[in-house]
Design goal:
Blueprint: E1 22-28, H1 35-51, E2 67-72, H2 75-87, E3 92-95, H3 101-112, E4 118-121, E5 134-140, H4 146-153, E6 163-169, H5 171-187, H6 191-211, H7 217-225, H8 237-240, H9 242-256, H10 266-269, H11 278-332, H12 341-344, H13 350-372, H14 382-398, H15 403-412
Helix pairs in contact: 2-11, 3-11, 5-6, 13-14, 14-15
EC number: 5.6.2.4
GO cellular component, one term: cytoplasm
Protein name: DNA 3'-5' helicase
């Protein structure tokens, strides 16, 4: 109201932030063992719950397949997670600013059309994307703020069906982000920049509170946005099993603060009576153990690096195939500016434009046929009908930036199309 300089009385209409079909939970990454396997199991659960497993529904339209988004803080993480999960059989691809424009558009097209079920992405992915069948949104690491998390997680379950929103919260990611944000405050050269840096840090602390408190997740959102307390009942981990969340949080907090606990000193724990050769032998054994660990870790990292390179080659080949398919579609397309489809309208697929064009043509032909029963009308050729349909579709396309607006523009032409 202040920004718009509105004067009272002003009627206010608000939409509650509570979405009853979204289940929120927080997983404490440090206490689950194999994080990637845990994530893989979660993905399988989400995708199978929606369709009682895809193996039992082989004829499903790819456009209606369940899918999910995994948000990561860095490009490297998007690549790493995509590589590991791909090895585990997940239909997945990374999306970030480091890819070439053609590659990004191909990945987005493949995701929107259902040929890729899961995207690992930086936060730039999703703006303008309106895909109803997103069954889960995962944040691999703590989000930057409550509003950002609410918006990004809100891309799940837009069809009204159950969807899951999960944060994998780890002390390493928390400490790294804490250090970066604090450094930004101390390095700020102007008061304005320092104020913004402090604001970012305070939003981060609020997000920490969201993850590390035993409060209903939906209620936390409601408090933040000034809404009434929602009737969550069982729509988050806290309300479903508060005691289990308390236990998990205690374990996590103990791990985070373990330097504050003193159990026993090395002198108390290590006695030469238990080892031949005394303390020197113990030290030598520990050093050898450490070297073995370093060698194993080096081999593990080398194997992962080679596997990542191999997956990159496979992925590049797949992306190139998608690009070629898109180029072939563009070449044979009947709509205008086919090559600009995704660039112009975020999330719009060329196949959707083609489908709408056919629908408009058929509708016009039926209308002409109906009119000819009552009036003698000037003969209209099929080419005339096609050109009119192309004009109508192109007008809707050029005046839209997102898919929802594009479809509304089509509806305004009087064509009774239902998406």
């Amino acid at each position: 109201m202040d920004v718009l300089c509105l004067k009272n009385p002003v009627a206010k209409f608000t939409t509650p932030c509570f979405r009853s079909n979204l289940f929120y939970d927080v997983i404490f990454d440090d206490s689950i063992g194999n994080s990637y396997q845990h994530l893989k199991d979660f993905i399988d659960q989400c995708l199978c719950d929606d369709l009682n497993c895809l193996e039992n529904t082989p004829n499903i339209n790819p456009l209606n397949q369940p899918c999910g988004i995994i948000y990561c803080r860095t490009r490297e993480l998007t690549e790493e997670i995509a590589t590991v999960l791909s090895r585990k059989g997940v239909s997945i691809a990374p999306y970030h600013a480091g890819l070439k424009d053609k590659e990004r558009l191909a990945v987005q097209e493949a995701f929107m059309s259902g040929h890729i079920q899961v995207i690992t992405a930086t936060i730039s992915f999703g703006m303008g994307i309106d895909k109803a069948t997103v069954r889960f949104v995962v944040h691999w690491g703590i989000p930057s703020s409550i509003p950002a998390y609410y918006q990004e997680s809100g891309r799940a379950g837009r069809d009204g069906k159950l969807a899951r929103c999960r944060i994998y919260h780890s002390k390493q990611a928390k400490n790294s982000l804490d250090f970066i944000l604090k450094s930004a405050i101390t390095q700020a050269k102007t008061q304005d920049k320092q104020k913004k840096a402090k604001g970012s840090y305070n939003m981060f602390l609020k997000m920490i509170q969201f993850c590390e408190s035993v409060q209903c997740r939906h209620e936390f959102f409601a408090d933040y946005f000034g809404d009434d307390k929602p009737q969550c009942i069982d729509k988050c981990d806290v309300c479903s099993n508060k005691e289990a969340v308390k236990i998990d949080l205690d374990v996590f907090m103990y791990g985070v603060n373990n330097r504050n606990y003193t159990i026993a000193s090395n002198e108390q724990l290590v006695s030469s009576d238990f080892y031949g050769g005394g303390r020197r032998a113990v030290n030598e054994e520990n050093e050898e153990y450490a070297r073995e660990g370093e060698r194993a870790e080096h081999n593990k990292n080398l194997e992962l690096e080679l596997e990542i390179k191999r997956q990159f080659e496979i992925r590049r080949a797949n992306i190139q195939n998608i690009i070629k398919e898109n180029e072939e579609l563009v070449k044979n397309s009947k709509v205008r500016a086919a090559a600009s489809t995704i660039k112009k309208v975020n999330g719009l697929q060329l196949s959707v434009r083609e489908e709408l064009l056919r629908f408009i043509e058929e509708y016009l032909e039926k209308n002409i046929e109906a009119c000819s029963l009552f009036d003698s009308i000037t003969e209209i050729t099929k080419d005339d009908v096609h050109n009119i349909a192309v004009d109508l579709e192109y007008e809707a396309f050029t005046s839209s930036k997102v898919v929802a607006v594009y479809r509304k523009k089509i509806a305004k032409t009087g064509i009774p199309y239902q998406s």
